[in-house]
Amino acid sequence: MRLSRNRLASGAARVYVSIIRGTPLLVQLFVIFYGLPSIGLVIDPWPSAIIAFSLNVAGYAAEIIRAAILSVPKGQWEAGHTIGMSRTRTLRRIILPQAARVSVPPLSNTFISLVKDTSLASLILVTEMFRQAQEIAAFSQQFMMLYLEAALVYWVFCFVLSSGQSYLEKRLDRYVAH
Amino acid sequence: MSHIEPTPAAAGQDGNLLTVTGLSKAFGENVVLKSIDLSIRPGQVTALIGPSGSGKTTVLRCLNGLETPDGGIVSVAGGPTVDFGGKVRAKDLSDLRDQSAMVFQHYNLFPHMTVLENVIEGPIQVKKMRRADAIRDAESLLARVGLADKKDQYPFELSGGQQQRVGIVRALALKPALLLFDEPTSALDPELVGEVLGVIKELADEQWTMMIVTHELAFAREVADEVVFMDGGVVVECGHPDTVLRNPRQERTQRFVQRLLHPF
Ligand SMILES: Nc1ncnc2c1ncn2[C@@H]1O[C@H](COP(=O)(O)OP(=O)(O)OP(=O)(O)O)[C@@H](O)[C@H]1O
Ligand SMILES: [Mg+2]
After folding, report:
1. What contacts B3, CB < 8 A, 6 or more positions away?
2. A78-87, A146-155, B139-148, B204-213: lowest mean pLDDT where?
3. Residue whose CA lies nearest to ligand 1 atom number 28
4. Which ligand is located closest to the Cα atom of residue B54?
5. How many CA atoms does the CB half-sphere of A107 hold within 13 Å?
6. Which of B174, B74, B134 minimizes the C-alpha distance to A84?
7. Is the CB of B223 under 6 A from ligand 1?
8. Residues sharing a CB contact under 8 Å with residue B13, sequence separation 6 or more, in sequence order
9. For A27-62, what is each residue's pLDDT tens digit?
10. What order of strands is seen across the sheet that includes strand B45-49?
11. Which of A101, A105, A113, A121 lies most in the core, judged by the most C-beta atoms within 10 Å?
């Protein structure tokens, strides 16, 4: 959207991305869960968390994809044009496949952060994994064990994600010199 | 070996395939083209020469719709006539673009596609050709330029000369009425220039209509039917290669040709 020729759309997108990237996720979470009720909008913990995380990831991903699209040389747009393609078709067939290659690493990082940041949801009373660990730990007094176990689960998730990332990077790298 | 033929180009009533009148273009304050007149007959090869910044690239880009001129009329026999002085319809613009195909100085191949995929992309996606037909055509074109065995490689695996030959084939595969070359050999190592010029010469022999921006005067003399010398956004002189390159009438042309022939 920030690449759009429509001034209004690109302006709105710029403000959105700037707010999302310029404020802590925790604050965004609190605004939605604790702040919105004061203007009469009450959202339950789970939906609040889902909304906050989605808005947040969307903001980061949008910026990553925008930068990736801009990193493709102008000559690629022109080559698409000269073989008769419309802008949309050039974007889809020529530009995005090349942008995908450069955006996989930063996008993966964003998703890995997201997995870890889900622990923040415990602070708005969502009983996600970390909060469950806290509750069981408080009950059983086995703090070290349970927190380590929680850490292990996060790590496994992130490990799976970064393996996926390596696989994708290899696949998309087959057409560049090493 | 199979043969590629240019689309039998229609000639207009005046015998021209392309007629350009009063083409003008400015970038902000910088007036780059000041009323350019050009014409080209079917099967003719025109070499566009001139000093850096004289507007040669801009002429080609205007013809291929990569830039929109500020004024002037571009007319293609059997295609559209577009008057850039008035309101231009998007349909005419894309029709005009489809009459020509550009071969770029830096090749601009699609790096994420194999050689074959580069060539069939336009025919399949734009011309809606059947895949099998597009592949058959592409393979015979690639064989023509000596690249049959490279079809499944990616551009980064090829030399500059090979990449430019793929660039030429990608343009040919669309069977455009007019081929546009913007300094097709100036990004190449000297020892690779010959293989690309050789292909262009063969296309000339096969009666493709071509407009070539080049600094290779010897090549222009041998292959071109007409040489157009531009300077400062105007056509200073045009005519038979022997006249323009050997006995130019204009002093500016003389100085330019002398400088290229005797750089120091
Ligand atoms: N997109 C653009 N924006 C602004 N100015 C431009 C643009 N493209 C070209 N120009 C200017 O237009 C003038 C002519 O450029 P052009 O590329 O057509 O010259 P040329 O004859 O092809 O030169 P060269 O031999 O160096 O390739 C130059 O002064 C250049 O700076
Ligand atoms: Mg140029």
Report:
1. B144, B206
2. A146-155
3. B53
4. 1
5. 19
6. B174
7. no
8. none
9. 888 888 888 888 888 888 888 888 888 899 899 999
10. B100-103, B178-182, B209-213, B45-49, B226-231, B234-239
11. A121
Amino acid at B35: S
Amino acid (1-letter code) at residue B184:
P
Give me the residues of chain B with pLDDT under 50, please: 1-2
Distance B184 CA to ligand 1 centre (A): 16
Residue whose pair of structure tokens reads 């097709």 in the numeric block: B184
Catalogue the long-range contacts made by A21-28 (C-beta closer than 8 Å, 24 or more residues apart).
A21/A59, A21/A60, A21/A63, A25/A52, A25/A53, A25/A56, A25/A117, A25/A120, A26/A120, A26/A123, A28/A52, A28/A55, A28/A56
Residue-level pLDDT at B136: 97
| Percentage with pLDDT > 90 across chain B | 91
User: Which tokens sit at A165?
Assistant: 């990332």
Q: Is the CB of B105 under 6 A from ligand 1?
A: no
Which sign does the torsion angle of CA B170, B172, B176, B180 carry? positive
* Residue closest by Cα to atom 5 of ligand 1: B27
> What percent of chain A clears pLDDT 90, i.e. is strictly above it?
22
B168/A74 Cα distance (integer angstroms) = 19
DSSP state of B9: P
Flag if A84 and B108 touch (Cβ within 8 Å): no
Mean of per-residue pLDDT scores for chain A: 86
Q: Is the CB of B58 under 6 A from ligand 1?
A: yes
Residue B81, pLDDT score: 94
pTM: 0.88
* Chain position carrying tokens 């604050």: A27
Mind listing the pLDDT tens digit for each residue in B247-263?
999 999 999 999 988 88
Chain A residues in contact with B101 by the CB 8 A cut-off are: 82-83
Residue A166 in contact with partner chain B when CB distance is under 8 A: no
Taking the CA of residue B174 and the nearest CA in chain A, the distance in Å comes to 7
Beta-bridge mates of residue A52: none
For the CA of B48, the nearest ligand = 1
A175 → closest Cβ in B126, B154, B174: B154
pLDDT at B46: 98
Residue-wise DSSP of A66-125: HHHHHHS-HHHHHHHHHTT--HHHHIIIIIHHHHHHHHHHHHHHHHHHHHHHGGGGGGGT
Chain segment A106-128, per-residue pLDDT in tens: 988 888 888 888 887 777 766 77
